[in-house]
Design brief:
OB fold (Dihydrolipoamide Acetyltransferase, E2P), five-stranded mixed beta barrel, 1 helix, 6 strands
Length: about 120
């Protein structure tokens, strides 16, 4: 169980085109948003869906795969770890974000591949 200390697995759809950045060091990073859905029935027996949005970050070869194959709307599976960080925006306000740093990506639903 020691490998399960900080492990996240998600399957969802990409909400926007991935943003690919090559840093001065030459390292590539991909940033994207992923939506996951949770379905349930409410107290009246009506089907409900809650959508959750996740910030996804990938580095190196994983970022290369995302750049080449992942587009808005595509369904993918990711595995990685959660990180939380803070930064100051342009107005000097401290912002807090939680992100999934991906170490593996699996492309699903081949019918909507990049054309």
């Amino acid at each position: 169980m020691s490998t399960l200390k900080n492990k996240v697995q998600l399957i969802g759809n990409i909400g926007q085109e991935p943003i690919i950045t090559v840093l001065e060091s030459g390292k590539k990073v991909a940033r994207l948003s992923m939506a996951t859905n949770e379905n349930y029935k409410n107290s009246k027996g009506e089907r409900q869906t809650d959508t959750y949005w996740h910030n996804i970050i990938a580095w190196g070869k994983t970022a290369d795969v995302i750049e080449k194959y992942v587009v808005k709307g595509k369904e993918i599976a990711v595995e990685g770890k959660l990180i939380s960080r803070s930064y100051k925006d342009k107005e000097g306000v401290t912002r807090y974000v939680t992100e999934v740093v991906v170490n593996e990506v699996l492309l699903l639903a081949a019918n909507n591949d990049r054309q």
